[in-house]
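pinning this so it doesn't scroll away 📌
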Amino acid sequence: MTILASLAAPLIGLGAALIVAMIGFFAYRAGLAGRTRVIEAKRFEEYDFYPFVIDENRRVEFSPERFNEAVQHFLHHPNPRAARELIVIGEQNFVRDRFGSQDIDSYKQLYTEYDGDSVISDNEAFLENYKRIVHLMGRSFPHTGIEILLHNLVNPSRSVVAIENGEVTGRKLEMGTTNLVLDLKTRRYQHQDKLNYELNLGSRQFKCTTIPIFRPDLGLVGAICINIDTRFLREEVRHHPEKLDAFFDNLLKTDFQLEENILSPDEYQSALRGKRHFLDEAIRTGIDAVETSQLAAIMFSDLVDYTSMMARDEARALRALHASAQIHRELVAKHGGRLLKELGDGFLSSFDSASRAVECAIDLQNAADGTGEFRLRIGIHLGEVTISGGDAFGSGVNIAARIQGAAAPAQVLVSDTVFNTIRNKANIRVVDLGSANLKHVDEPIRLYEILREQ
């Protein structure tokens, strides 16, 4: 009994200690569980300590006091989404350089706990596609006095991460920005776009547009800026014909050609009828809105044996039709004509001069020969026609159609009125075929064949 009694006290003490330890362990686990349960999910802007304030001029300003309050809150009350945005704001506002050591230590703790490095790298990856956009856009108009660049506003001290045509302002990669973040936040608060604004810097003048890039989780993270050197365009380019030509050459330079339609259905049909640019019909409103009679060179052309080609090989016939339409659209426009109608496998075009119509016809036949897929018959007549609504009527149109019907495959025939206009053109050779009686034409028409270089 004495031995048992002597052992009982230690055993009781050990058991009590174990119970206390178990209680403490479970209390600790419960505390962790409770801490996990209270992770906050509010958006950063919903907190009273969102670190931006509005001054008396309705401009957005950074508040260091609110920023430090936010740091302390998120160190004790987890909210990964809001804390990551706080890290972005801290880097944007150079808190590492402007705060005291105690506040910097707290920010560094927050930065570590919420993996600030991943916030920075994730945003760099997010901006990669914007870099590509900047490079492609900038390379579309080289040497035109137009600069385009991308700012990574999470790293404002070295914010320029992509730039094209940087010679316009002299900026280079990894140059920084100063107050762009606060300016863009101010404009967002005031519901303003930073669009088409003017900058005067000494003797330099620019027209600029800045496009902010916001992310739902991090807020403002970048901006695309477009800067145009207005004095270069107004004082250098506009007043020197050779520089104006060079400017347009650079602006309109292309590297290759595709067969894609970017027009709406209505605009596409207007283009086939001869509309040359987006203001063309507006400029011609007073001309085409009513019927007008004028002297014009009318050209009819069609594919040889298209109907029989369709019967033999429909796929080949459709390829030929597509190719024919393509070369007609390109070459009629090139020679200053208007493609008025597509008539199945045929085309009706008008020109202001007979020589342009003939030169276009020669190029059309050469292009058709080059395809090896089809041949054309072409007829041209110069006479008075009625133009209305993008179409042409009258006896001049009828005669051109009958001349085209009389042409042999790969041949260009013209009337005597066309010949009398081009007879002194050294680069155009003709053969007199004599008079011909054409269907539905009262008088015989003297026809001439246009010869092509072999």
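📌 and the second one:
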Amino acid sequence: MANRTPAKMDRKAKKSFTLSTDSVAFLEALRRKRRAESVSAILDEILQAVRREHERVSLDRAVANYYDSLSAEEAMEQAEWGEFALHEFPSEDRV
């Protein structure tokens, strides 16, 4: 995930989109419910959530592909390291 500076996060680009009346009504209802300053702010929140979900799915896929690519011996070694870590680092349940 890229690091974002506050200046970069505050930059906005003005765009114009044509949306269905149902979508506009939905965005307006969310704006009122969340007491957001604008429909654009709500739309941006929705898009950022979708972007984060795509990034999470991509990361999950990359991790799965990595473990799927391991030989049986490498997978066993990873499992052993995992067991070691579980015993070396206290869990929140034991603290």
